Amino acid sequence: MIILALALAVAAIGLSGWTLYRLSQTGTSSAGRYTGAERADAKQKICAAADLVRRGVSLNTNLQPAGGPEDVTGILAVAANARLSLSEGGQYLLARLDPATSPELTDAVKKFANNLVDIGAAATAGAQNSQPEQAARLHDADAANGTITELCK
Predict the structure, then answer these.
(1) In this structure, are residues 100 and 41 in contact, taking their beta carbons and an 8 Å threshold?
(2) Which of 47, 64, 111, 119 is the most exposed place for a label (fewest CB within 10 A)?
(3) What pTM did the predictor assign?
(4) What is the secondary structure of 37-69 as a DSSP string?
């Protein structure tokens, strides 16, 4: 029984090694697995999604309460919408990523989306934009957004 288990383990290790070798030889780039039209369609869709999220985040993080600075309920509502646009915007982007999207654009979108979610979560926990950790998240999100803008041209 032990010999059979040992033989199966050796066979499994050998098969795993062969599979890894084959994957490294064929590559995992989207360029080889998807047609040019599929890659172009994936790029167009994620770029449109990024633009939609960018506009939503910009709109909702720059709103002012209708009642002015004394409108506590308005201030809380504006802050809630800003946090929601950040968190949901990030999740929306991650859900819209297509496997045919280029690795460079995928990486930038993931970085941007995850930063948005982190910014929203930290804001919900009371982080202020002036705090170093939140300021760093904002800076990183802005850099990833710039990369997406360039890649979507």
Answers:
(1) yes
(2) 64
(3) 0.78
(4) HHHHHHHHHHHHHHHHHHHHHHHHHS---TT-T
